[in-house]
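Practice problem 4.
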């Protein structure tokens, strides 16, 4: 295949950019990105080059930069470059080298685009990269989204080389005598992608000589099939999902009757950090008793009588807040508390989210905190009958996912209010009360 002709045909087919829109081409100095830059040049497209020096390979990184700069200057192409303290950022962000480098470069690409008016960012991913991605997704377990591989377009990032195989790129390099740099890390098996590239794809190509091309064509069909699939999933999601605040409620009976239960559950739960391997456990909740749950790194799905409830399980650092005085407003991850002081009203409002407290009985600072095992109070309306908060929750049939979000207000180490639920008898407004502290809890 004539790679330049194929590039121009693919560019027109995908409608990547208008004739006057500039593209920022990411060029590392490796074979793929140098070919991409050469194709942009030969096709007469308006573009500039962006090169990142991550300073991970010493002199080798500097030689990459020299090659790309000299090529850009020789061909009168705008050249943008930067250097990153990558190892320092890895330590600061607690992330691996690949993720750190990706975050650094795309943030910088965005800045260059804004400053120099580039409409798109082009990367040199090709058909072999796409085949590797598809195989890794399949081996690790994936839904429909994993079958389309690397997207041709993703916001302003475009990948105009996805139509071309590695062999076609190598042939183009030989025919056009294109200089490039070889990253020694590409020859190692330190990364999963390299293992697939070095040990699996060669076997595929040996057994199926046209395997890469067939995978490329299949990926295109999968991408089109996904459009139809997404419409069907969206229709099911509308029937099954109910948003209540930050929580997701899914009716058990409706989900039990769903066709393609595994697929529906995959699409409903994986956006919240659940894996394909956890699906059997999640599906088993449909037959479980209330209170059973399955957790991901960020969420829990809890069986609660008639529903499966997806709720946030991320730990929060600020679970204790001091209230120094009123009026004031305090925000937490579960809602906002509004504190005011006023004369005793003629009528005390009855609302779960509002507490009216005898101001003379409170000692500042007050404490807002999450409830804990061992807490007790004297529920309003029960005289001076002491009750553990945990027992109160059982009596009131408070669901597990709600219990985990309950705050209490304390004065002098005594619970004043189970926030949004019940006031303590000791702090209620009496006939002799002159001023009240009014607290309104607007839950998130």
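Answer key:
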């Amino acid at each position: 295949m004539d790679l330049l002709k194929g590039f121009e045909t693919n560019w027109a087919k995908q409608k990547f950019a208008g004739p006057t829109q500039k593209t920022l081409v990411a060029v590392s100095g490796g074979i793929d990105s140098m070919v991409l830059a050469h194709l942009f040049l030969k096709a007469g497209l308006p573009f500039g080059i962006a090169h990142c020096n991550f300073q991970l390979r010493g002199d080798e990184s500097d030689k990459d930069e020299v090659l790309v700069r000299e090529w850009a200057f020789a061909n009168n192409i705008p050249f943008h470059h930067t250097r990153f303290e990558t190892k320092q950022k890895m330590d600061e962000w607690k992330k691996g080298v690949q993720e750190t480098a990706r975050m650094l470069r795309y943030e910088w690409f965005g800045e260059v685009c804004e400053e120099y008016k580039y409409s798109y960012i082009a990367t040199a991913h090709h058909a072999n990269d796409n085949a590797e991605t598809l195989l890794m997704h399949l081996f690790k377990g994936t839904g429909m989204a994993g079958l389309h591989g690397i997207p041709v377009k993703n916001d302003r990032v475009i990948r105009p080389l996805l139509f071309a195989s590695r062999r076609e790129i190598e042939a183009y390099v030989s025919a056009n005598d294109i200089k490039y740099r070889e990253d020694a890390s590409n020859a190692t098996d330190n990364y999963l992608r390299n293992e697939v590239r070095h040990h699996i794809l060669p076997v595929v190509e040996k057994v199926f000589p046209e395997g890469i091309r067939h995978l490329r064509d299949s990926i295109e069909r999968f991408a089109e099939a996904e459009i139809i699939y997404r419409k069907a999933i969206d229709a099911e999601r509308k029937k099954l999902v109910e948003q209540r605040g930050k929580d997701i409620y899914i009716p058990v009976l409706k989900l039990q009757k769903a066709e393609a239960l595994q697929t529906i559950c995959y699409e409903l739960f994986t956006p919240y950090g659940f894996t394909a391997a956890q699906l059997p456990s999640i599906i088993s909740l449909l037959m479980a008793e209330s209170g059973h749950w399955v957790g991901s790194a960020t969420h829990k799905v809890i069986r609660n009588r008639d529903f499966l409830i997806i709720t946030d399980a991320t730990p929060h650092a600020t679970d204790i807040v001091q209230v120094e005085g009123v009026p004031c407003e305090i925000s937490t991850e579960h809602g906002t508390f509004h504190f005011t002081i006023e004369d005793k009203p003629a009528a005390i409002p009855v609302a779960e989210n509002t507490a009216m407290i005898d101001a003379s009985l409170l000692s500042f600072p007050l404490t807002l905190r999450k409830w804990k095992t061992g807490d007790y109070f004297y529920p309003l309306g029960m005289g001076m009958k002491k009750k553990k908060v945990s027992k109160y929750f059982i009596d009131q049939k408070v669901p597990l996912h709600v219990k985990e979000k309950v705050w209490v207000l304390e004065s002098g180490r005594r619970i004043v209010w189970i926030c949004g639920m019940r006031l303590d008898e000791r702090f209620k407004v009496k006939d002799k009360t002159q001023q009240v502290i009014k607290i309104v809890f607007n839950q998130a």
